[in-house]
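Final report, closing paragraph on structural work. Over the funding period we assembled a curated collection of sequence-structure pairs, and we close with a single example.
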Amino acid sequence: VIVRDGKPAGELPGLVDPDLNDLALRPTEHFTLQTPDGDTLHGARLLPRKITGKHPAIVMVYGGPEAQLVFDVWSPRLMWQHLADRGFVVIQIDNRGSGGQGPAFAQKVHKQLGRLELDDQLAAARYLAKLPFVDPSRIGIYGHSYGGFMAALAMLDPRTNSVFKAGVAGSPVTDWRLYDTGYTERYMETPQSNAAGYEASDLAKKASGLQGKLLITHAMMDENVHYAHTAKLVDALIGANKHFDLLVLPGERHDLRAPNARTYMPERIAAFFANNL
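Its predicted structure, as stored:
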């Protein structure tokens, strides 16, 4: 629909996919949170079609510096729609460090990737816990790539204090010393100049802190986040005698290519949360 001066002025014709109509997709709702230092965090949420008692909830996370995921635009968010139809409350926030709010907001995470981002994702979990229709003991977290780093961090870091009962970390960065220097050093500087920052974000060092159920997924041909990241974390979890689940895709890359893999992965993620929340 074309709008001029607040009134419909015309409509561009377009093909309607009958499958989308059958799915009865719904838009997300916008909400905001405030950080202790006065920043506004923008979020989106999708509720089950019917609220009946206390529902489990999932925090969808990316969280990477200068990336914006919450927009006031239509998006089908098919994974969200599926989870909401299975009774989950689904939310996402753009934590400090995200794009869309100016350089000062984005640069707050300089030399300390994971610290403020996790604080803000915890704020999202607390927001969920206060909703009258959410069961605060059944909150999960899911992310891929930088979001995988965040989801794994949320399950390992003592700051979370078991807020998240279950987490899925897809292709997680587990040690910034192993990641692309062109990206990493833009935000973390070098391991020599910021040893404390690299050490604090090394997930293998936090393996003994795992609480709740964790599923790690990773493709062995990942050209973005090398499988060495997951291998290092797996060794550390085994060394700490921690139980976890691992799903490896030998022939896939960072973004899944094969249609069967693109179907299989979301099914496994949804089943993991259904079984553990």
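The mean pLDDT is 96. The longest helix spans residues 259-276. We thank the funder for supporting this effort.
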